[in-house]
Input
Amino acid sequence: VIVKAALSFSGPLVAGWFLVQRLWPDVPIALRLGIGAAAGMAVTGSTCFLALLLTDSTGTALLVTEGFLAALVAYSFGSRRLRPRQWKREWPNDPDARIFALFVMIAMLAAAGFVFVSDASRRGGFDAIALWNMRGRLIFSSSTSPLTAIFDPAFRSLHPDYPLLLPSLLSRAWQYAGSDVSIVPILLAALFTAATIIITIAGLRILSTQAQSWIAACILLGTPFLLGHGASQYADIVVGCFMTTAVLLFCIYDSDSSLSYLPVLAGITAGAAACTKNEGILFLVVLFSSRAGMAFCRRRISGIAELFALAGGASVGILTLAVFRFAHSPANGTLQLMTVHALLSRMGNVNLHLDIFRGLESSLNFGQWYLNPMPLMVIHAVIAWQGSLASTKKAPWITAALVLVGMCGGYYIVYLLSPDDVEWLVQSSLDRLLLQLWPAAIILYCLIVAPRHPIEVPLVSSRLSKARVATALMVVGVMLVGTWSLRTSSQTAGAAKISIELDRTEVTTGERYVIKINGIAGPQVYLSYTLNDICMGQFAAYLGRDNRVSYQISSTTPKGTYRFVAVRTPANPGWTQFEAPAAISVK
Amino acid sequence: VNRSTIAKLAGAVLIAASLFNAAYFVRQSYHWPLFASDDWGRLEEDLVHAKSVLSALPGGHVEYRIEEASDTYDVTAYYRLQNIVAPTILQTNIPNRYVLVEFWTTRRARPLPGLVLVEDFGAGFALYQRSQ
Output
């Protein structure tokens, strides 16, 4: 079964390998492997997803996908190949052997950690269980209509507007394996995590120095959240891999515009990102806008051709997404609220801005590092920044910078317009969103501190030291104060007496009520509760900075009297009973 | 201070930090033995027959009810079960002719008011039919 499951990935990998070779004949082998894996999975997932939407049949979708992959391989073999050209390998002498040895050590530790986490949560984290893998199983096992099963009212609360690229890939692999074995999502998670790291290393070997590419690899492999989250089988690593590929391809294209097919490859992966998660749609828009802006500024006809190539590559993904959005998926709640009026009215709400910034402050250690590398990276980038980098005609770092700024701006607007509790939303999602952008941020860092053709400036001048060191110290100061204040607040909260309060005693459908819990270190806690004095188990809650969490009563919420009896933190399995349990009646 | 010295220093510190982080990650996630059987796998084995019975029910839907829930029960248990019995869809708040009941604490089926026992699957799961 494992061999069959692994074999299911060989088709996309082979197709991706030949596709990359066809469009970029002299691509280095490691980059061909990494981009080939990402592009192959992008093509396979988008095709399988589209075929599923058009046929509503798992078997037919598989046949169409395999046929398309076979045609792609045949095209890559049969068509006239582009003339290979040699890269100018002018890397400076780096202490490769020592850095490489350390890289191998870190890679072995990271691989071991990945195996341990995969084994501990071999069925995946909560989102994998409730969203991605479950949808994959519904597609795989449904003998009649997979789409009817996915959009069943029983799963109405499970974001039915999320695209189905990842579930389609899972279903395809399970069809090969013959059963829904748990090794398939583990292998897929490992594949995308490894591809992200390989693409970053191999891409930076072209754009930066060899030593810097190994340092970037060490930073990525030394990010526990990247590995742990990858092993938890969430879609964030998948969408992050597609984003990284697209950004890197444009960075390479900007350093050598004779590689005119790279925007097509970037478009394929960007389109797949849009078919994986809603953040991918934002990414596609930001990437296209960035490139359109750059084409406008450069005022060159090749910029228009590049945009067409990008759109052409992304066309399958965009078409798939359009069919999904207009024919099947319910509307996205946040998108419906995106009006100019709503944006203007919410922009004036200072508390919303403060909530978002507080969430950002608490997400500064999103990588779950023991030693956070970000302050040093910021200081190093500020010190190493050269004015000549900005004036360079071909600036490989610009796309990465524009995408990072655009994505962060987009996330900010989404948080601002979200109908959900902003504090909860930021706390529960920002670390994952930042993780998606982390490889692109590392690429940007490397392109600033070690561009491929560095301009030698031997001494740090006094002008440089004053302004830049002040900026760097400010950034580090903010990070340290943020971390210190978080630790202080959690320690203070832990020492107090635990109590619960509700803002009302009765509530009806459509209304909200607020739970306030004092004396416990949040933000995440678990509450145990009863319904009509029958124990119903526990549920997770995210407490805001004022220790509050609000809930809305939906039409499916069972009626009766809810009593909240005990609370615990994720780190402590022992329950603390409330001295005076709070109760509310749902009418 | 030379730029290349700064670069070397930064690189060395970043690699050292990455080594610490990777070691910390292994320390946090280490456990032994690997690949031991888990609750999910055991439940899958226990519910092989139940899955086939449920998939043969008309409509593809069944009501799911939890009895004797304790503090250890949470919504993950529902999704775990839904993954195992797919393509049958478990409805939590929509009444259905057939009701799959999970007895969380005792793991033993017992008579329930308003329901007629159809089959006891064992492991705390039983299929009931509404008497009306």
Notes: Chain B touches chain A through 54 residues (CB under 8 Å). Chain B has a mean pLDDT of 93. The radius of gyration of chain B is 25 Å.
